[in-house]
Amino acid sequence: MQSEVMFAGFGGQGIMMIGKLLAYAALEEGKEVAWIPSYGPEMRGGTAYCMVVFSDRPVASPVISNPSHLVVMNRPSLEKFAPVIKPDGICMVNSSLIPIETDRGDIDELRVPCNDIALELGNVKCANIVALGAFGARSKLVDMDILQKAVEKQFSAKPKLVPMNIKAFRTGAEKALEGM
Amino acid sequence: MAKKLMKGAEAIGEAAIWAGCKGYFCYPITPQTEVAEYLAKRMPESGGVFLQAESELAAANMIFGAAATGTRVFTSSSSPGISLMSEAISYIAAAELPTVFVNIMRSGPGLGGILPAQSDYFQSTKGGGHGDYHLVVLAPATIQEAVDMMMNAFDIADTYRTPVMVVGDGLIGQMMEPVEFPDDYTPVKADNSSWATTGCKDRDPHLVKTLYLDPQLCDDFNHKLARKYDEIKEKECRWEDYNLEDDYEVLLVSYGTMSRICKTVIEDLEAEGIKVGLVRPLTLFPFPFDAIEKASQKDSVKAVISVEMSMGQMVEDVERAVKYKKPVSHYGRAGGIIPTPDEVAKVIKETLKKNK
Fold this sequence. Notes:
The complex is a heterodimer of chains A (180) and B (356). Chain A is an alpha/beta fold. Chain A has one domain: 3-Layer(aba) Sandwich (Pyruvate-ferredoxin Oxidoreductase, domain 3). Chain A has helices at residues 15-28, 75-81, 114-121, 127-139, 144-154, 162-178; strands at 2-9, 32-37, 48-55, 69-72, 90-94, 108-112. In chain A, helix 2 (75-81) links the parallel strand 4 (69-72) and strand 5 (90-94). Chain A is globular, with a radius of gyration of 15 Å. Chain B has 356 residues and is of the alpha/beta class. In chain B, 42% of the residues lie in helices and 18% in strands. Chain B has helices at residues 8-18, 33-45, 56-67, 79-95, 121-125, 143-160, 170-174, 215-235, 256-271, 289-296, 314-322, 341-354, and strands at 4-7, 23-26, 49-52, 73-77, 99-105, 136-138, 163-169, 176-179, 239-242, 250-253, 276-281, 283-285, 303-307, 328-331. In chain B, helix 1 packs parallel to helix 6.
């Protein structure tokens, strides 16, 4: 049983971080996991991405042509990667920055205004955590308590940021469950 | 010990610390600069020396000097940086000093790109520096293997008094995977009292040198090295046989992260009724010629494919191994493009069609 989640956005949106948080949570649950970043020029602006692969067995190919699920934070990433997700996958779309839809009738398109929610909560920088909460709740791939703990741990060096990020995580999760 | 998610480059640095490495002299280069970043903090913490040199050439010669003292030292770089280090590697082999080098391969030639490649096979196994020497070359496919091989590399280096190289690619450098470090590890205690420069109070001075002007002495020395490499070939060759139990029609030979992609392909094709086997070299030197020859000889085998992220380097050794008894071909991509499982599966099917 293997799942692959691709996170994509422009460099600076915190894509790598939310991929890592999902990977930490999967490891906590005793899964085999690999986190694979893009580190080419696309890191700056455009379509930076990371892939999280987790499985009951050791992960074979870290290179995945068609991931199970996708989280996209900006428009070029949706345009580039939405066509490759496997049917019945979840595509979490940051509707604050992405006015278009995926045009795929065979996937679960979850539209969440991550930037708007983040701004309401106090800082646009936590938009990625909103996205993580939304995707986590919709996909049920990992235990949400474990995933939330990973978020807390991530910001534990700056305790002032923890409450806002927890709120961002939970708000994202609520939004995801609203549509169900 | 609990498993920890670690980036390959950092895990490699941590493995060196666990192996008792006390010196890291380096120069930054993508995609492995995180090794230096990590060790800048970690090495002094553990009582060792961290030094960023002015170039890879300088770093490699610092390694040469430090290794002469009998201290465990290592450096890491990527393809163009390893080219710069190659002269020093020849000197280190000639001086018979234990050292470890790490090459996180990127696309070339020239300045090339920063994405993963396996195009330094020739450089690490056939050349690099000048003269009749060999590097022992270890090729991990997972981050855990990179950790295990790093620790093993120091032991091999000390056992044989020889430079050892661990080759990864950009994926090994940049991926994060769960790793654990062995609580019960004890480093090989090699006796360097006959050669290490540790201060010559109460003893005759030791001389670490590589100059052999007298032709007979130089010839003798080259034979000494050759005997060392023969022993290494006998004792240190390692590989993995994968899916060789049934009647596979195609044999793949692949190493590093590329071999993992091959394993996924094998699984995918199994579901379609096409049987494919794999021999994965763990040591590129000594190369598992016998294992590949044996695996290729099965009657069911119609073709052998060397799958590597290069324009075809390991394929030459695969051809030697197979001794022209079966068709051998190469598949790979350059430029940092990583072949997808679908791509490789397609190539296997086309190869089967061609070799009915």
